[in-house]
């Protein structure tokens, strides 16, 4: 068995009978200035595991060591190695984690054993899916190398748990994508079908020929395309049983022989056809816009002091919301599907799937039409209620904006929001007439948006507090960045109602 931890030049047996909790130490695999990594046996279940033990002379690193352990333990994904147990006592500090089986990509590279392009595309797709999970969690990670990816004899792919404490910086994904764009090149089996396509994708991952770097969703999608294109069309045919030929006339045999020849021609045509590279990547979504702390005007003509925050430059898109639903589906398998729900969410609400989602998402993926609107994955998601928007924001480690924050964002650099030209329905990556000086789009048009807190309508101050919907809508002529609706039903869904999120300053 090949171990996931870096092995020292010479393995050192553990001191005789030494045991940490229920883990009997067997071999020292790695040691640095802070911790030791042991191969150990979990006695209660006779299971081999890895144990990372804080060194006795590294007590000043104890808090950081445990913070990283907590970060790793918070990651739940079937492809990523699990943390089993952590122990922190006055004179003892360690954690046990999964021993990943199989050989790593680094060992495969060292052995000079490349992969067929279809297989390598599958591996990279699975890596992308795991990285998307870490992105969605906002989880920082140490650099990912080829030694982090394990493949066993059955083709099962597992990744080393690289989570570390702290927020995830945007450049972490770009760092790992560029690294794999370089490191995987020697693992491409040159001359096999799909090699050109795979090398093209790796070049794009390195940033060659692109205006902006690839992101993990694009890497995943391109790998899926390559896998699909390289699927053997004949592998799905049912083999002809010999008994079916018994008693047939010669003409039937000739027909069958002809079909076999034609199938061979088709097979060769597919195999010899010049490979086509994947389509160019989708445009990247704009970054969140920072709004400084200070005194800001409110939509009610007052002023309010707000701390610094960042607001998404665009309304949440269909593609972004689809990733959220995928995450919920995974969590639901472990009965954690309600983890992002508001405490006040009605018991009868059991799903965050938008209205007419199947039709909307299918049209978006094909850049088709939905309810007479041209849609793509970069179009605003609609048909969501307040509970849906709240849960999505929680998943992104963000929240919905208050109406005061929303108005502060639209007025940053803009004295009169009424002068912001209303915009029609459009993808958030397309030019828009209502971009603010700070780069925020969709506030005077596209879709109206949910805000966080209930508030009284100034026109009816005795009417009680209601949910506030703010901003212009493509379906409501005359609406603009000053438009607001007060409604009593948080479960309201409309085809012109979406949302954006804010991030508190750290």
Structure, explained:
This protein is of the alpha+beta class. It has three domains: 12-97, Phosphorylase Kinase, domain 1; 113-230, Transferase(Phosphotransferase) domain 1 (Transferase(Phosphotransferase), domain 1, Orthogonal Bundle), CATH 1.10.510.10; 289-504, paralog of FGE (formylglycine-generating enzyme). Helix content is 28%, strand content 19%. The protein has eleven helices and 24 strands. It has helices spanning 62-73, 105-110, 117-137, 171-183, 195-205, 216-230, 250-272, 318-332, 357-365, 386-395, 403-411; strands spanning 12-13, 19-20, 23-31, 35-42, 47-54, 83-89, 92-97, 103-104, 139-141, 149-151, 157-159, 163-167, 289-291, 294-297, 303-306, 309-311, 369-370, 373-374, 448-450, 455-456, 465-470, 484-487, 497-498, 502-504. Strands 1, 2, 3, 4, 5, 6 and 7 form a seven-stranded antiparallel beta sheet that branches. Strands 19, 20, 21, 22 and 23 form a five-stranded mixed beta sheet that branches. Strand 3 and strand 4 (35-42) form a beta hairpin. It is globular and about 80 Å long. The two termini are 44 Å apart. Mean pLDDT is 86; it is low at 1-11 and 232-277.
Would you spell out the secondary-structure blueprint of this structure?
Layout: E1 12-13, E2 19-20, E3 23-31, E4 35-42, E5 47-54, H1 62-73, E6 83-89, E7 92-97, E8 103-104, H2 105-110, H3 117-137, E9 139-141, E10 149-151, E11 157-159, E12 163-167, H4 171-183, H5 195-205, H6 216-230, H7 250-272, E13 289-291, E14 294-297, E15 303-306, E16 309-311, H8 318-332, H9 357-365, E17 369-370, E18 373-374, H10 386-395, H11 403-411, E19 448-450, E20 455-456, E21 465-470, E22 484-487, E23 497-498, E24 502-504
Helix pairs in contact: 3-6, 4-5, 5-6
């Amino acid at each position: 068995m090949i171990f996931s931890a870096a092995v020292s030049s010479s393995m050192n047996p553990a001191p005789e009978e030494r045991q940490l909790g229920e883990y009997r130490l067997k071999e020292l695999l790695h040691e640095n200035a802070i911790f030791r990594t042991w191969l150990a046996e979990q006695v209660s279940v006779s299971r081999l595991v890895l144990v990372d033990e804080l060194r006795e002379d590294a007590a000043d690193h104890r808090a950081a060591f445990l913070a990283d352990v907590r970060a790793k333990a918070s990651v739940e994904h079937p492809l990523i190695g699990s943390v089993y147990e952590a122990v922190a006592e006055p004179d003892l500090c360690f954690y046990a984690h999964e021993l990943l089986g199989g050989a790593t990509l680094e060992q495969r590279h060292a052995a000079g054993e490349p992969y067929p392009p279809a297989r390598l595309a599958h591996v990279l797709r699975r890596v992308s899916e795991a990285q998307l999970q870490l992105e969605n969690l906002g989880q920082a990670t140490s650099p990912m190398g080829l030694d982090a990816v394990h493949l066993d004899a059955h083709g099962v792919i597992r990744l080393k748990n690289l989570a570390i404490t702290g927020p995830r910086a945007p450049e972490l994904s770009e760092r790992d994508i560029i690294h794999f764009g370089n490191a995987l090149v020697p693992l491409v089996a040159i001359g096999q079908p799909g090699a050109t396509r795979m090398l093209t994708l790796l070049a794009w991952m390195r940033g060659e020929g692109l205006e902006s770097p690839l992101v993990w969703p694009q890497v995943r999608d391109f790998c899926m395309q390559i896998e699909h294109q390289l699927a053997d069309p004949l592998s799905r045919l049912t083999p002809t049983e010999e008994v079916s030929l018994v008693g047939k006339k010669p003409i039937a045999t000739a027909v069958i022989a002809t079909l076999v020849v034609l199938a061979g021609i088709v097979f060769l045509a597919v195999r010899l056809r010049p490979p086509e590279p994947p389509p160019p990547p989708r445009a990247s979504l704009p970054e969140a816009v920072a709004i400084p702390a200070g005194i800001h005007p409110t939509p009610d003509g007052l002023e309010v002091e707000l701390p610094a925050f960042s607001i998404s430059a665009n309304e949440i898109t269909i593609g972004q919301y689809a990733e959220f639903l995928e995450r919920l589906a995974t969590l639901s398998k472990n009965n954690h599907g309600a983890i992002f729900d508001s405490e006040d969410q009605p018991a009868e609400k059991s799903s965050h799937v938008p209205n007419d989602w199947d039709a909307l998402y299918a049209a978006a993926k094909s850049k088709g039409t939905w309810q007479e609107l041209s849609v793509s994955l970069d179009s605003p998601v609609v048909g969501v209620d307040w509970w849906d928007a709240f849960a999505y924001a929680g998943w992104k480690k963000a929240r919905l904006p208050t109406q005061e924050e929303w108005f502060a964002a639209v007025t940053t650099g803009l004295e009169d929001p009424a002068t912001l030209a209303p915009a029609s329905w459009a993808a958030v990556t397309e030019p828009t007439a209502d971009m603010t000086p700070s780069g925020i789009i969709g506030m005077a048009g596209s879709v109206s948006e949910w805000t966080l807190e209930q508030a009284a309508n100034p026109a009816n101050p005795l009417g009680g507090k209601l949910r506030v919907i703010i901003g212009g809508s493509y379906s409501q002529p005359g609406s603009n960045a000053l438009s607001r609706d007060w409604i009593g039903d948080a479960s309201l869904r409309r085809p012109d109602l979406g949302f954006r999120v804010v991030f508190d300053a750290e």
